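In response to reviewer comment 3 from the previous cycle, which asked for concrete evidence that the modeling workflow produces usable outputs, we include below a single protein chain processed end to end. The sequence was submitted unchanged, and the resulting structure tokens are shown without manual editing.
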Amino acid sequence: MRRRNVTSVAEFILLGFTDLHNLQSFLFSMFLVIYILTLIGNISIIIIIKITPQLHTPMYFFISNLSFIDVCYSSTISPKTLVNLLMKKNNISFLGCAIQTYFFANMAIAECLLLAVMAYDRYVAICNPLLYPVVMNRKLCLLLVTIVYTISFSISAVHTNNVFSLSFCGPNQIDNFYCDIPPLLKLSCSDYFINEMVMSTLSMLEITVSITSVLFSYIRIISTILKIRSAEGRRKTFSTCTSHFIGVTLFLGTLVVIYVIPSSHYSLNINRMLSVVYTMLIPMVNPIIYSLRNNDIKEALKKAWRENAPLKH
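The workflow returned the following structure tokens.
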């Protein structure tokens, strides 16, 4: 029998980019630029929404929370990846790996659930516009966001305990550039069948709830839009939820490919590329999706730029 509760592994080795010896400097530069753009883009959206009274609406409240999650989400992965690339080291301590796993799972679950809440917000706005101010009041918005964070904090704690309660006394090389749950389970010298079932069940539940909520909302939204007689009216109405639809497709689509489709269906390089998209690129492009396609945010950005630009002599 395998022994439990015996942890002899003091650190893990992240194999993520160790085979790309000649590209270490390039990858460092690219990921650094991506991380800086992620911080600038998301923090700018949070500030603009905070200082612009016209943007103090439920939709922008949820967008600012999405930006906050993306900042935390990216900051859980990117700094350690950059340090490893710069120092040409790929180790992470046992405790550091546990902390990274917790916060990574936390932010991923929070974003997953928040996208479902945002879909509901668009559903109410388009399908019940007269009741929208009453239904999506400040109290409900705060309650929904509180529920999102409470569930994400709780489930990520279960995920993390589920993994790090196992014994790690053998191989310590993780086939990724961050501490992810599936490869960690495979490194355990304990019997992890039940732990894997718990992980799979919770992950499927999280994804199913989000996708079901989004699909339900958008089926009703599309049905309502099709009933609008004028083509211009249909275009304007659909444009109010296009950004969210693109963001949902990118995030949940990548999530399904990584965690639902068996990894044996694609190579390690593809899995690594998808992980980069999932952990770095999506947090960077979300501000672009929600600002470049949103006239209110673009106008607020222009106004803030004009007011803070240096005076011309």
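The first strand starts at residue 11 and ends at 14. We consider this sufficient to address the reviewer's concern, and the full set will be provided in the supplementary archive.
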